[in-house]
What we know:
Helices cover 52% and strands 14% of the residues.
Amino acid sequence: MQLVAYGVNHTTAPVDIRENIAFNAETLPGALYALKAAPGVVEAVIVSTCNRTEIYCHLEDEDAIDVGEWLHRYHRAEAKTLDNYLYQHQGSDVIRHLLRVACGLDSMVLGEPQILGQIKTAYSDALNHDSVGKSLGRLFQHAFTVAKQVRTDTAIGNSPVSVAFAAVSLAKQIFSNLADSTALLIGAGETIELAARHLYDNGIGRIIIANRTIERAHHLATQVEGYAINLSEMPAHIAEADIVISSTASQLPILGKGAVERALKERKRRPIFMVDIAVPRDIEPEVGNLEDIYLYCVDDLHDIIEENLQSRRDAALQAEEIIDSQVEHFISWLRTQDAVPIIRAIRKNAEEESNHLLQKAKKQLEQGTSPEQVLDELARTLTNKLLHEPSRQLRQSGSDVDNNLIEAARNLFNLKD
């Protein structure tokens, strides 16, 4: 049995290469079928995300296909065009790589948890299309268990390392109960979408989304049970907001000191937490001088993120130690699988011998031979039959300089000195 993995990721290939060899929901079933039907492929799992495409295979012999060449052919790429971007792993390196990916140690954002869900989806797809069996099944289940252990035993995912996540984490520090709070999100791009999802997942009471294009605001609002307004309506809603997060492409500030002062009077000096993620800034810097305003810009968040990244790097070192031990654990399981065919053969031979002698004993009983004599002969003959060949091999090995077989027999039968 041979485990192999081939792939590209964000560190080895640019996006135009990654998107050309990606597998989507429509192409994945056919790809799994074609790969499983290829010579020597026993099992296959394909993991395909925006940042990586990886193929994990269990190959049964040395004549099996070259998975890298298969990837070229499947995507109709010219021979060797992917060679400068592809990485490949074999044996224990496959195990280590998958564990590191599942734990978020190979991600663009160190320790991010989304990749584990994506791997679980890839495994489920392979399972549903009958392309995964005992070995890869056990390996992926092991990866899920190790990822959970790393999340539990280290701080790899405790500290926010994205701008949106950092903004929401700061909001949680200021407003202990987000369920009683209202968030005004200005813009509808990727960062605002992430912030909206983080706020929604943390139980925010209300979300208002303001954007120049009302359709985009509506689209995001429906996903987080919020409501959308046009950007021109935004000043009238500031007084409702406990949290304001802004990220637009405007070249000039869209929220000035005067509008915020009016909102504070209407709020009767209840504080507002503001995060300006935009570059150039959306909120006039003078707003930060107002009492009851907590204003953070993108540079403030980056300082927090860098500090948190160092915390994750320290946790990653602990995670690597856990992975080292778990790689050895899985290799030990693989070794036990090598013994399974031998155990089956031994049991089959023993059963055949015992069945043959049992039939002979029954005939003797039918012929009137005493049961005591039949049982004595059955026990003696069965013992001789089962031990004859092992005894002969051991006697022969006794004359050899290398007596490994004798030591192995001592361990096998748990014999004391």
